[in-house]
Amino acid sequence: LQQHSVINSLESGPRGCFMLRFSPDGQYLAAACADLVLFPIKLFDCATLVPSDTDSMETEPSPSPVNTYHGHHDLVYDLAWSSDSALFVTASSDGTCKAWQVPAKAEHSANDEGDQSASQCRFSLQHPCFVYAATFHPTAVEPRIVATGGFDTVIRLWALEAQQVVWQLEGHKANLNALAFDPLGTRLYSGDGAGVLQTWTGNVANGQLLYEHLHTSNEFQGTPINCLNLHPVAGRNILVHSRHNAVLSAIDARFGNMQQRYGGFVNKEWPIRSSYSPDGHWIASGSEDCQVYVWEEASGQQVATYQLGFIEPVIAIAWHPFKSPAILAACSFGINQPIIIFKLPAVQLDVHAPEPPLPPLSLPAPPLPSSENLAEDEQEDALAQAAAAAAFAATKSPQEVTDLIATLPSPPPAPFGASELPIPFQPPKPFQLPTPEDSPLASPRHHSQVTAGTLFGSGGALRRTGFSSTLGLEDMQRKKEIFRRRRRENVVTDLHNARRQQDQTSK
Hints:
This protein has 507 residues and is mostly beta strands. It has 4 helices and 30 strands.
């Protein structure tokens, strides 16, 4: 695996590049660069970066970006693509998260800098602090939902088109450095500068928004978390990149237990990023010793290090989503440091061309408070009927009664993943114009409050109404459980009576 070949060296900026990512469809590479004063985002066409004959090492001019986006006035810390590759967002310490549109192929200008008419920011999300992390909700489309985090420790969920906060979560005590959704968007993971990893559970579907705190992990406390990556195979593990101790940790995304650790690189000061390969078999990371490290995901063994000619720390690394042999991009933040595109001939990825994005997630509608769960009622009726049959058969032989009892049905198992779904909530009250106190920015709700918001939109407008998800529900569930427990006790009593009567008959 030590063999590698440099395919391209791209000009980034006078102060290098701090973040880069390939688009999910593999057509573009977006790079957050740093000039002397400005902080442009450069968009490169992968067709020019990764030619079909990558083995040829002919000297060619460095490809020019098809577009350059201007608008940020300070360092860009994070960059994330939408699932359909139509938009990407950037999080900056200038206090904004900006969304940029990718121009169509036909709109690319013939000049080196691309079509400047498409270089303007489409949406700008204003924050009261530095913004360090941003990511798209993977399935929410109408409206698109973007999660952001930064220096003020608050997670904000934005309706992108309306440029409004529709939900926010509090609980961290240090600046937020990393955010990541699971593939369906039912869980959100957040990591901060104190090494605290928090898990939030919820859903965005059918115009309804609900997120609440699920779990806090202090496994990495005292070591700032640089980034979080979900395993590409169903998000089974989450890769936590922690600073100071220079360790990558793969933990089970469902239960939080440690699965594997990866070490050997150097990371004491810089917010260096790591990443899974598209098939999840490999992990790559930058390092402060100016090298790129690669590990085997399953065994945790370090398999290769690559010297690419950087003289400053390698800050970020990105895998092309479906090129095989593996194609990677690496960048460094420093004077005149380039963006290096390189190939690993020995790494054959088990990936395919991207499929159409998933439709918006839609969870089953919860039952109304006045209704009973039909499946559970049917099981309870079956138990009662079986007990009645056993009592009626008291005059039968002991073996016949034993056979009848053995045929009693057991309660149905809980559906897989039911514990991950949001708790049922009541339908919202009739819509009313929100008061200033209802604004999530003016009066933030703590994550321990289980509340839900309903989004109403018309012509791009977005409003929010808050309502409690537990009013009357706990009392109804408690009464329902008492009723079922008493019903089961009656069934057991009938069975004991049947056996006692059978014993007396046999004597």
